[in-house]
Amino acid sequence: MIKKLKHKYQNYIEKRKKLRLLNDINKNVITLKQSELIKSKPVVLCLFKNGSYFIDSFIKHYQNIGFNNFVFLNNNSDDDSIELLEKHNVTIINSGLSYKKYKWAFKQFLVHQYGKNIWSLYADIDEFWEFPYQNKLNLKGFLNYLDKNNFNAVMSYMLDLFADSPLKD
Q1: Which one of 47, 67, 103, 131 has the fewest beta carbons within 10 angstroms of its own beta carbon?
Q2: Is the pLDDT reported for residue 169 higher than 70?
Q3: What is the pLDDT of residue 2?
Q4: Higher pLDDT, 88 or 16
Q5: What is the dihedral of CA 160, 106, 116, 17, to 10 degrees?
Q6: Are 131 and 72 in contact (CB under 8 A)?
Q7: Sheet of 91-95: strands edge to edge?
Q8: CA–CA dist 169, 156 (Å, integer)
């Protein structure tokens, strides 16, 4: 009985910590650019730092799949990422909070602010997601299949590839 109460108390404390982190995020983000998000369409959510090398190919990849809504949360970039993003029809949010401390809260913030009641894809700036049968089925068809079959999430695998020389060569 005491063990069970102790476990419940620890869960309560963990939830309180997470709520505090989310409150910190809500107080410490600034919207740099707000795009016109289509509420019924799926959204790509991306937390990044110094992503200028990937920005154009990232957006192009997801547009080619069928995404039109993008929200980027910049975390202390010191490259030209913001300038590159401003050329696109995307929402840009900025935060200077610690990635190490707030990683979970950043992701939760993005999903709760921009992904409620729609399909949301969270991807790092260097991740290029593909879905099953993508060569035969468009994104709308894939999401319709998921909805029709009462799915509310998709699990996918990450495959890291490494070049034997710098990518710029």
Answers
A1: 103
A2: no
A3: 74
A4: 88
A5: 120
A6: no
A7: 30-33, 91-95, 69-75, 43-48, 120-122
A8: 31
3: left (phi over 0), alpha (psi -120 to 50) or beta: alpha
DSSP letter at 159?
-
Alpha-carbon torsion angle 37, 34, 54, 83, nearest 10: 150
Task: Tell me which residue of 106, 117, 26 sits closest to 72, measured CA to CA.
Answer: 106
Residue 154's nearest CA partner among 168, 169, 139, 166 is 139
Q: Which of 20, 60, 50, 48 is nearest to 110 (CA)?
A: 48
- For residue 53, CA distances in Å to 43, 67, 82, 167 come to 22, 20, 12, 10
List, in order of start, the domains of the chain with CATH numbers.
Answer: 29-148 (3.40.50)
Do 87 and 9 contact (CB within 8 A), yes or no? Answer: no
For the stretch 54-113, pLDDT in tens is 999 999 999 999 999 999 999 999 999 999 999 999 999 999 998 998 888 999 999 999
User: What span, in angstroms and rounded, lies between the C-alpha atoms of 45 and 159?
Assistant: 19
Convert the pLDDT of each residue in 131-151 to its tens digit.
989 999 999 999 999 999 999
